[in-house]
Amino acid sequence: MAKTKFTSLSHYSQKPGLNSVGQYQMSGIPFLTGTTDGIGGQVTHKIEFPTVTKTITIINTDTQTDADLRVHFAPSSSAPGVFKGHHYVTLQESNTSMTFNVKVREIFISNNATAGGSRGSYDLVAELTGIPIDDAMFLTGSGISKVPGETGY
Mind listing the domains of the chain with CATH numbers? Predict the structure, then answer.
């Protein structure tokens, strides 16, 4: 639903909000990033988007070491339940990809190798909406960062 801001007796200014259907139906604004120098073992990259996403595609581009990349929606450093609860998707082989149709403000990509182990690389392609990032929530809880049995799972 669009947010309406009253500016005067006869003028309204509308901005798209999280439930603005049209923002997800039209073509998205392109956002491209990635790494060629790799992610070291036990290292996490945080990708912050300038506006709320429509879709995100991540491609494991590693051709040297066959590094397994983990894609998740909460930081593993502040939420150890991400890995304990298996709240991630693994891209195991070179040129494997995954597309997420999600409205998020950030995403995390980790290398599953031990510290100092193989370095992984990736490309990220996202479609962005015109929805301000401040409208998006930080994701936590069941299926994102909690382990079964934890409070709030």
Answer: 27-135 (2.60.120.10)
